[in-house]
Amino acid sequence: MRVHELRTRVRYADTDQMGVVHHARYLEYFEMGRTEWMRRLGLPYSEVERRGVFLAVVEAHLRYRKEVRFDAEILIRTWVESVGGAKVKFCYQVCDSEGVAAEGWTVLGSVNREGRPMRMPPWLRKVLEEAVK
Q1: Cα–Cα distance between 115 and 119 in angstroms, integer?
Q2: For 66, which DSSP code?
Q3: Per-residue model confidence as pLDDT tens digits over 47-56
Q4: Sequence-separated (6 or more) residues with CB below 8 Å from residue 68
Q5: Which residue ranges form the domains of the chain, and what is each CATH number?
Q6: Cys-Cys crosslink for 78: which of 33, 64, 117, 131, Cβ 3.0 to 4.6 Å?
Q7: What is the pLDDT of residue 90?
Q8: 9 in Cβ contact with 85 (< 8 Å)
């Protein structure tokens, strides 16, 4: 299984009035990890979309373990857990210097330019399946 790690720092705009990362930002961190994971595989989202496939989030799960504050350096770990005929499940961990702060997963479904569900094309499925091994 290929795990991608992306380091970034918590921006002031990511936090709430108490200086803690706002709960909704974690889904953005997941997206950052996912897009960079695909780019590292040599398959950036822009290329996938250019070829007529769009990956829409159809399910998301997030579990908070501890708070993270403004200016903390975080590590976003991303990997693919499973690939189906039309869906792919990505898993994530967001860590700070003390360990896992949040974890979760998203399921993305393949849709065409019109937003209609479609089977994942063989070229995309192959790349994703190879990353699970």
Answers
A1: 12
A2: S
A3: 999 999 999 9
A4: 10, 20, 21, 74, 94, 96, 101, 102
A5: 4-132 (3.10.129.10)
A6: 33
A7: 98
A8: no
